[in-house]
């Protein structure tokens, strides 16, 4: 009976976590999750679904990036993180960025 309760407790614990892949982040990037530096270079991280998380990436000579993974209500009503993948391309310091949005026609401001 105790083993069943433990198994159920563990299943609930794992269900409250979401795997976030980090496989497209450059190897030389230092990654901080909620203020704590990750040790080594994992391919993914397991984060709780019921709260938002801050992921900070930095690399010498590159502009740092801050990514916030928001906790949102999923299709089944349970909490989940809004992004399922961290894929950030750091930009060298001094290089500008340009945002292009493709769509039909021009949008006019009111």
Describe this structure in words.
The chain is globular. The strands form three sheets. It has a four-stranded antiparallel beta sheet with strand order 3-2-5-6, with no helix packed on it. About 15% of the residues lie in helices and about 30% in strands. It starts with a helix and ends in a 29-residue tail after the last strand. The protein has one domain. The protein has one helix and eight strands; from the N terminus they run H-E-E-E-E-E-E-E-E. The longest helix has 14 residues, at about 1-15.
Question: Any key phrases for this structure?
Answer:
single chain, 110 residues, alpha+beta, 13% helix, disordered N terminus
Mass-distribution shape: globular
Give me the oligomer status. Answer: single chain
Query: Beta-strand percentage?
Result: 25-35%
N-to-C SSE string, H for helix and E for strand: HEEEEEEEE
Number of helices: 1
Rg of Cα set: 19 Å
- How many discrete domains? 1
The assigned structural class equals alpha+beta
Instruction: State the major sheet.
Output: 4 strands, antiparallel
The overall strand count is: 8
- Share of helix among residues? 10-25%
Biggest sheet, spatial arrangement of strands: 3-2-5-6
Task: Summarize model confidence as the mean pLDDT.
Answer: 77
List low-pLDDT spans. Answer: 1-14
- For the terminal residues, how far apart are their CA atoms? 66 Å
């Amino acid at each position: 009976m105790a083993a069943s309760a433990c198994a159920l407790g563990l299943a609930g614990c794992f269900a409250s976590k979401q795997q976030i892949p980090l496989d497209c982040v450059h190897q030389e990037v230092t990654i901080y999750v909620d203020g704590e530096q990750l040790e080594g270079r994992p391919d993914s991280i397991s984060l709780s679904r019921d709260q938002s998380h801050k992921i900070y990436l930095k690399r010498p000579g590159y502009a740092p990036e801050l990514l916030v993974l928001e906790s949102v209500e999923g299709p089944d009503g349970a909490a989940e993180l809004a992004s399922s993948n961290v894929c950030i391309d750091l930009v060298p310091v001094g290089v500008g960025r340009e945002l292009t949005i493709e769509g039909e026609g021009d949008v006019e401001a009111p």
